[in-house]
Design goal:
This protein has about 300 residues and is α/β, with parallel strands linked by helices. The chain has 11 helices and 6 strands. It has a 4-stranded parallel beta sheet, sandwiched between helices. Helix 3 crosses helix 9, helix 4 crosses helix 5 and helix 6 runs parallel beside helix 8. The chain is globular, with a radius of gyration of 21 Å. The relative contact order is 0.12.
Length: about 300
């Protein structure tokens, strides 16, 4: 295997006409060192998977957000008079990537701030009869479960509306899952995206997908990666990364850092402040005390 040649193929694909950002520069500089951590018996599989990996630089993300909006606006029914734009809220109230991409989307596409809602739950019941379109902005949907929660939370208000789900990328399984959910709940769901990804080991990358899966599993175990991330969160098997982070749906060897292994596109895991750790420790102690009392 010619490592330099294989690296150039990957970097050329990810940089999109030499549009580099900080994260991609780092990956390019560290490519050989990263590959040196991979035993020879697994290098062929890792390189073949990386060739299928989609990287969205900051340039490509912004370009795609403009394209997604243009695609949305082909629908003549979309107007400021009857549409709202929003994002998928995190369950704990913290900011998330959906919020970030929604913010970029509305700025890049010069949306009217009066139709941009951080919380559509604040829209009053009488106002809903004048709304025809609800547009959600997100970066990536790996399983569809986060968006499912939004649908179920507002299901009564969504009846008879056009619900749009705009994403940079979505897994094919997630797309099917959400469409089935929409049919079950009897709501109209329109999904607009840049790419639809099929699971890594359901593509025609290898002559023997099962053998390739086994090798990646062995590699992941040797690098002490948690089993739940060997093939991505909930076995998503995605191959995608963004300038701001790598989804945990992506194969774990690409993003999971460990003491003895440094990933090529590491996932950003923010440091938890002490006051939050204290809260978690308090909850844990209460739980342990309860268990002890019931023994």
């Amino acid at each position: 295997m010619n490592i330099k040649e294989e690296k150039e193929k990957c970097i050329e694909k990810w940089s999109l006409n030499n549009k580099f950002d900080k994260r991609l520069c780092k990956a390019s500089n560290e490519f050989e060192d990263w590959l040196s951590q991979i035993p020879n018996e697994y290098q062929h599989e890792t390189i073949e998977l990386l060739k299928e990996f989609n990287y969205f630089s900051s340039y490509l993300v912004n370009k795609t957000l403009v394209e997604l909006h243009a695609e949305l606006m082909k629908n003549s029914n979309i107007s400021d008079e009857d549409s709202v734009f929003t994002f998928i809220k995190s369950y704990d109230g913290k900011t998330n990537s959906s919020n970030d991409y929604w913010t970029n989307y509305k700025l890049i596409n010069s949306l009217n701030k009066e139709i941009c809602y951080e919380d559509i739950g604040r829209i009053e019941k009488w106002q809903w009869k004048y709304i025809k379109n609800v547009i959600f902005i997100d970066d990536f949907s790996g399983t569809g479960e986060s968006f499912e929660k939004e649908i179920c939370k507002h299901i009564n208000n969504f009846k008879g509306k056009n619900i749009y789900f705009l994403t940079i990328a979505i897994m094919k399984n997630a797309e099917t899952y959400l469409q089935n959910l929409a049919n079950e709940k009897r709501i109209k769901l329109i999904m607009i995206n840049k790419i639809i990804q099929v699971k890594a080991f359901e593509r025609k990358i290898f002559e023997d997908n099962n053998d390739a899966m086994l090798k990646i599993k062995k590699l992941s175990k040797e690098k002490d990666l948690e089993s739940r991330y060997h093939f991505g969160f909930k076995n998503s098997q995605s191959l995608i990364g963004f300038y701001n982070n790598t989804p945990n749906n992506t194969l774990g060897f690409i993003w999971r850092n460990k003491d003895s292994y440094h990933a090529l596109f590491p996932r950003d895991l923010p440091k938890i402040p002490k006051w939050q750790q204290m809260k978690k420790n308090r909850i844990k102690r209460k739980s342990e005390n309860y268990v002890n009392k019931t023994k």
